[in-house]
Amino acid sequence: MKVLCALIVALSCINASLGDGLKCTLRPGEFPFEWRDMVDPCTKMLEAQVKTEIEASMTYLAMGAHFSQDSVNRPGFAKFFFDSASEEREHAIKIIEYLLMRGQLTSDVSKLLKFPLKPIAGEWSSGVKALTEALSLETRVTRSIRKIIEKCEAPADVNFNDYHGFKVGAQFTFALAAAFLAQTVSLHFFSSSAASQALRTTLVDPVNGNLS
Length: 212
Fold this sequence. Notes:
Blueprint: H1 2-18, H2 40-68, H3 75-101, H4 127-153, H5 158-163, H6 165-189, H7 192-202
Binding site for Fe cation: 53, 88, 91, 138
InterPro entries: Ferritin, Ferritin-like, Ferritin-like_diiron, Ferritin-like_SF, Ferritin_DPS_dom
Enzyme class: oxidoreductase
């Protein structure tokens, strides 16, 4: 056991000493770059969105794990959040693939994720609390995407205009699902006044802030 502990400590020290040496760094290829026409602000916002999507994924993963505990035992909630975590991770992957396609990730791809990455919380007092928080998080993610669209459309980037449609649609799909679930659970467990307030909280348009 002592040998194992010593080995773990030694590996930790080696990892710390190597530092940036363990990063995946690509040497730029000898290719013409005239075709790389994305403006820098648009690129930076898309790179930042990768972290936003991964953090959302980790939050939904934490929610799924919370509701999977035997002391909580809400398999329906767990499945919803695990599926949502996978979807957010897929969004991050699609953004990375898009940046690669446009020739924007040519070196030091580790800059996309600044650690530590962590979920918003580790436990939730009820399903409604988790759904309301998830809807709020998804609202922030959607607004971030809209800002990216506005920034990237400014130079009339036709290629980006063709790309961003799938993302907005996916965000609204999640928002509607979360709002519907929160509405259903609220009406089932709360008094009418509390349910009314829960409905107003969960049925807000994630873009314009209006009741849907």
